[in-house]
Amino acid sequence: MLRPVTPPIVQLADRIEGDIRERGLQPGDSYLNTAETAKMLKVGTASANRALQLLEQRQVLVRSQRRGTFVTAPVTVKPATRRINVIVDEAALKMEGVLADGLLVGIQSAMPHAQLRFRFTPTTDDAEFIEGLIHEALQSSQREGFVLVRSSLTVQRLVANSGLPAVIHGTAHPSIQGIPCVERDTAQAARILVDFLAEAGCRQLILLLRQHVMPGDHILLDQVQHSLADRDLSGRLTVRCLPPDLEVVRHEVASVLKHARDKIGVICRSEPLAEGAQAAVDVRSVRARGGAPVIVMSDYYRSGPAVARWAYSRLIQSPEEIGRQIGHLLLDQYADRPPVSQRVILPVKLVVPDA
């Protein structure tokens, strides 16, 4: 069994709670502002602000732009009554940043006294890992639940069969029932990206998917094909499923560009794929027929000051709002209430850099 990992933002929040206890602060006492907290934690102000937000959701602190930060409740060490296991692929978390801190803040806002922890799926046998985790959850004195992020069929099926509270953050695999899912509107993302590329003069498309194809990829592929057919461009699509290796992507995209007859548009499922595509374009831009290829992304998870280099589809709702929806879906299951919807589709919009 792989050791559970406390998310970094939760670790920072726990350190702040420890500092409040050490100072002996009581309800109504003032606490450090964001800059002072960042200095105390030796982190950036963005990370400190997220941790303070998490403590607001735990109802430990209250913050006001004018008055400052104050303790709202006695900070004592007490076991959480619920524990939420966020099951995530560690490689996807590190490479693409698939899980924003705001999502955890949102879950915590819906479930203030729940403990959040990461459980990273192994690269080999995730069945044994999940079976062990479910057994542990069933034996726990806490009421355990799960949030499944970019999860395999095995993970979804085992958790669904366990009967434990769970939410899929993403698209459910075919045949999976009983677990509500919260997913982006991938079909709408495909439509707006094809429209953008068509308006840019692209008459041929390349669709770059991740090496391991997931249910959401099928939705993206189907809608790209439908959108091309609506524009009388059937048969103008090349699909590749590639690892997040810049050289592999560069060589594969370059080989397609070599035989292109019209201006090319490239839809990338992830940022690493877009970086590889751009590397191929940079080499061949002078010789490209119909003008330089145009690259877009269907998924972009980075947050903060970093600006995307390419146009992409973005969720309209904030990570905090999405996290709250996930938290409320879990609460419905804890209370044996039927969910309002088994499938929550999150709307997206087109974002164009410098536009």
User: Percent of residues in helical segments?
Assistant: 40-55%
Backbone structural class: alpha/beta
Overall 3D shape? globular
Pattern of helices and strands: HEHHEEEHHEHEHEEHEHEHEHEEHEE
Name of the CATH architecture of the largest domain: 3-Layer(aba) Sandwich
The side-by-side strand order for the widest beta sheet comes to 5-4-6-7-8-14
Low-confidence stretches: none
Task: Explain what this protein looks like in three dimensions.
- Helix 5 (101-110) packs parallel to helix 12, helix 6 (126-139) runs parallel beside helix 7 and helix 8 runs parallel beside helix 9.
- The termini are far apart.
- The model has no long low-confidence stretch (mean pLDDT 88).
- With 355 residues, this protein is an alpha/beta fold.
- The chain folds into 3 domains: 8-71, Winged helix-like DNA-binding domain superfamily/Winged helix DNA-binding domain (Arc Repressor Mutant, subunit A); 82-179 and 318-347, Response regulator (Rossmann fold, 3-Layer(aba) Sandwich), CATH 3.40.50.2300; 186-314, 3-Layer(aba) Sandwich (Rossmann fold).
- It has helices at residues 8-23, 34-41, 45-57, 90-96, 101-110, 126-139, 153-162, 186-199, 215-230, 246-258, 271-284, 319-334; strands at 30-31, 61-64, 68-71, 82-88, 114-120, 143-149, 166-169, 181-184, 204-210, 237-242, 264-268, 294-297, 311-315, 343-346, 348-351.
- The longest helix has 16 residues, at 8-23.
- The protein is built from 12 helices and 15 strands.
- A 6-stranded parallel sheet has the order 5-4-6-7-8-14, with helices on both faces.
